[in-house]
Amino acid sequence: MFSEFKEFISRGNVIDLAVGIIIGAAFTAIVKSVVGDLINPFISLFMAGVDVSGLYIPLSMKSYESLAAAESAGAAVFAYGRFLMAVINFLIVALVLFGMIKAINSFRRENGPESVVEETPEPKLEPGPTQEELLTEIRDLLRELRPVS
C-alpha cells in the first residue's frame, strides 16, 4: 500500500497540482495586497471617506449607532454594505488580475517560448506505385476478367 501511495505522489500531475496551489496562495496574497494597500485607499478618497461596508438596515424596530453596535446587541441586520464592498473588491481583484495576466502574456510574447518543443519526425512512408504502374495493373486485371473469344 505504501508503494502505491509513493507511486501516486511521485506522478508529475500531483506534484504540479501541489506547486500550482502553493503559487496560487502566494499570488492571492499579492493580489489582496495590491487591492487593499494600493487601490482601496484611492477609492476611499473618491468616496469622501464614506465606509460603504458599514451600511445596513436593522430588521428590528430599534435603531443603532453602527453596524457593529447592532451586531453586538444581537440584532438581525440586512448588511447590504458588506455585500456592496465584496462586489467592489471582486471587481477590483478581477481587474488587477486581468492586468497582471495581460502583462505576463505580453512579456512571454516578447521573450519567446520558454521551452522549445521537439517535433517528432513523421515516419517515412515508402513511396507507393506511380499512376502509370496502377493503370497498367488495372489494365492487366481487366484483361484477365474478359472472356477469351
Shape: elongated
Q: SSE order in H/E notation? A: HHEHEHH
Instruction: Return Rg in Å.
Output: 35 Å
CATH topology: Non-ribosomal Peptide Synthetase Peptidyl Carrier Protein, Chain A
- Which range does the strand content fall in? under 5%
Number of E-state strands: 2
Distance between the termini: 80 Å
Question: Main β-sheet: number of strands, strand sense, barrel status?
Answer: 2 strands, antiparallel
The top-level CATH class is Mainly Alpha
- Mean pLDDT over all positions: 80
- Helix content percent band: 55-70%
Helix segment count? 5
Strand order of the largest sheet: 1-2
Uncertain stretches: none
Number of domains: 1
Structural class: mainly alpha
Name of the CATH architecture: Orthogonal Bundle
Write the layout of secondary structure elements.
Blueprint (H helix, E strand, L loop, with lengths): L1 H8 L2 H35 L10 E2 L8 H6 L4 E2 L1 H32 L19 H15 L4
Antiparallel strand pairs: 1-2
Tell me about this structure.
- This protein has 149 residues and is mainly α.
- The protein has one domain (2-110): Non-ribosomal Peptide Synthetase Peptidyl Carrier Protein, Chain A.
- The chain contains five helices and two strands; from the N terminus they run H-H-E-H-E-H-H.
- The chain has helices at residues 2-9, 12-46, 67-72, 80-111, 131-145; strands at residues 57-58, 77-78.
- A two-stranded antiparallel ribbon has the order 1-2.
- Helix 2 (12-46) crosses helix 4 (80-111).
- The chain is elongated, with a radius of gyration of 35 Å.
